[in-house]
Design goal:
With 332 residues, the chain is of the alpha/beta class. The chain has 17 helices and ten strands. The strands form three sheets. It has a five-stranded mixed sheet with strand order 2-1-3-10-4, with helices on both faces. Strands 8-5-9 form a three-stranded antiparallel sheet, sandwiched between helices. Strands 6-7 form a two-stranded parallel sheet. α7 links the parallel β6 and β7. It starts with a helix and ends in a 5-residue tail after the last helix.
């Protein structure tokens, strides 16, 4: 009788035990990561998910699209632990006493062009014409204001600025004639050109140093989860190498995850971002300083902030010194 009882107990115990796959899943650190733009910058983390690179570093990453500045609020509220976004929200929340910091410079040039309706032939034609941005305070907002400033046009006074909610909605607003243009990034940029809209300027030519998108987190997270953060940066570094070396796979991610079926758009998105994503992804200090100087004009609360307090390149530096990044490009 006792033998039968033990046999039944062992069967129940075996059934209750998780499988090897289940144990592996339990061992992984779960992370929720927000990305704030449907653009080429989102390709890198999606490569890390679909290629199994995050899993290689014991990370179970859920990517969430949160357009514009609300991505920062999800980070501060604890909904997400890391984010792919611009530096502007980092400075704004830190001016209010927060501890946000950029640890990876994912896209260190502005991968945007100002696209306009065909009737706009020159920058001076923008006077009195409404332009769109994703959200006020976003990268698109700062870039448009910087460009208008260089052209001697006053944002909100000479050129009305309308919040559209995302990059694709800027194109929709141009199609419906609600706005006359705005900063657009790939892949939406290629679609806009195909539909006959004009590229007024490639912003990388006007503003060569600009921290467009990077990995953002909180200093508290870095203190409490240093190895998790280091593994996340390792995974992103490997994903960048895949993006640069495996062109066919990168295009597959652009198609599957950004929902771009047009082969020409896939090609242009990848080709352009190859020049904007560095192999060793330090945050672009010069580009961040430029953004801060510009924002201070209308946001004086940012003036006391130190540029160096907004970034932490220690993980990237440590990996570089260890030879990690060089090992990803053995033939280069």
């Amino acid at each position: 009788m006792r033998t039968k009882f033990l046999a039944k107990f062992l069967i129940v115990l075996i059934i209750a035990l998780p499988s090897a796959e289940g144990l592996a899943a339990l061992a992984k650190t779960q992370l929720r990561v927000a990305y704030s733009s449907i653009s080429g910058s989102a390709v890198i983390p999606w490569i890390a998910v679909d290629k199994g690179i995050f899993a290689k570093y014991e990370l179970d990453v859920e990517l969430i699209y949160v357009a514009g500045s609300p991505a920062m609020q999800s980070l501060l509220g604890g909904t997400t632990q890391l984010g792919i976004q611009g530096i502007e929200p980092v400075m704004r929340v830190n001016a209010q006493g927060s501890d946000a910091v950029m640890i990876v410079g994912l896209v260190t040039k502005p991968p945007f062009s100002i696209i306009v309706r065909p009737e706009i032939r020159d920058a001076k034609d923008l006077k009195g014409k409404a332009m769109g941005v994703t959200r006020f305070g976003s990268t698109t907002d700062a870039l448009l204001r910087l460009a208008l400033d260089k052209w001697g046009l006053r944002p909100d006074i000479d050129v009305p600025i309308i919040q559209m909610g995302g990059v694709p909605p800027i194109l929709s607003g141009m199609q419906s004639k609600k706005i006359f243009g705005g900063p657009i990034s790939l892949p939406t940029l290629a679609l806009a050109k195909q539909e006959g809209f004009r590229e007024l300027v490639d912003l990388a030519d006007v503003i060569p140093d600009y921290q467009s998108a990077g990995v953002v987190t909180r200093k508290l997270f870095l203190r409490q989860s240093a190895e998790v953060a280091r593994n996340f940066v390792r995974a992103m570094g490997e994903a960048i190498a895949v993006f640069k070396n495996d062109l066919a796979y990168s295009k597959k991610i652009i198609k599957d995850r950004l929902k771009i079926d047009d082969a020409l758009v896939q090609e242009e998105t990848q080709r352009t971002y190859l020049n904007y994503v560095p192999r060793v992804p330090y945050p672009n200090r010069a580009g961040i300083a430029l953004i801060k100087t510009f924002l201070e004009r209308s946001e004086p609360q940012l003036r006391p902030l130190s540029v160096d307090d907004q970034i932490d390149g220690s993980i990237v530096r440590g990996l570089e010194q260890s030879g990690f990044f060089n090992a990803l490009y053995p033939d280069k």
